[in-house]
Specification:
Strand 6 (90-99) and strand 7 form a beta hairpin. The chain is globular and about 50 Å long. Helix content is 28%, strand content 27%. The strands form two sheets. Strands 4-5-6-7 form a four-stranded antiparallel beta sheet. Strands 2-1-3 form a three-stranded antiparallel beta sheet. The protein contains five helices and seven strands; from the N terminus they run H-E-E-H-E-E-E-E-E-H-H-H. By secondary structure, the protein is α+β, with helices and mostly antiparallel strands. The protein has two domains: 2-52, Uridine Diphospho-n-acetylenolpyruvylglucosamine Reductase, domain 3 (2-Layer Sandwich); 61-162, 2-Layer Sandwich (Enolase-like, domain 1), CATH 3.30.390.50. It starts with a helix and ends in a 12-residue tail after the last helix. Helix 4 (122-133) packs antiparallel against helix 5 (144-162). The model has no long low-confidence stretch (mean pLDDT 90).
């Protein structure tokens, strides 16, 4: 769910000893840095009271794709939430978030911006995946995840563009 909430720019409402505050979902999770025991930016004593989804028009072209070792496993090797607004054969707005590739849902707002005005086709999606993964480094045993993420991004964008959010016809990620 975190990957989808990140793609849709959710807002996390918190209540704590110092009162109420809101965090953008992209700021809720954190990278390990100097405090690897903390995976979010909640303050001591805070509770999540609501998660708000801003109004958006991604009702036709969206998908969530989760790739796992086995269907019985809950944890994703890679997941992608993709949402597109397409008008007159061009992408007007794009949202793309990845899971299973970092300590938090991963987005590249610059790549989302780059997608604006592009034709939603295979070459655009391949270039998008390359841009997002540029500089990605594996850690030995997980090197395979970079290519898996590339193929999953392309497939998720293809499904979203086709208006097929739950395409279950082909379980193989090419």
């Amino acid at each position: 769910m975190c990957v989808g909430l990140a793609a849709l720019d959710a807002i996390v409402h918190l209540e704590g000893p110092d009162g109420s505050r809101n965090l953008r979902f992209g700021d809720f999770h954190r990278l390990p840095e100097d405090r690897p025991q903390h995976d979010n930016n909640m303050r001591p004593g805070e509770l999540i009271t609501a998660v708000e989804l801003p109004v958006s028009d991604f009702t036709e072209n969206y998908t969530y794709l989760k790739v796992r070792d086995r269907l019985s496993y809950a944890f994703a090797l890679v997941s992608v939430a993709a949402a597109l607004r397409i008008d007159a054969g061009a992408i007007v707005e794009a949202r793309l978030a990845l899971g299973g590739v970092a300590h938090k849902p991963w987005r590249s707002r610059s790549v989302e911006e780059w997608l604006r005005g592009k034709v939603p086709d295979e070459s655009t999606f391949a270039e998008c995946a390359e841009s997002i993964l540029r500089g990605a480094r594996g850690r030995g045993q997980n090197n395979f995840k970079i290519d898996l993420a590339r193929r999953t991004i392309i497939r998720a964008l293809r499904q979203a563009a086709a208006g097929m959010p739950q395409d279950q016809a082909d379980k193989v990620v090419r």
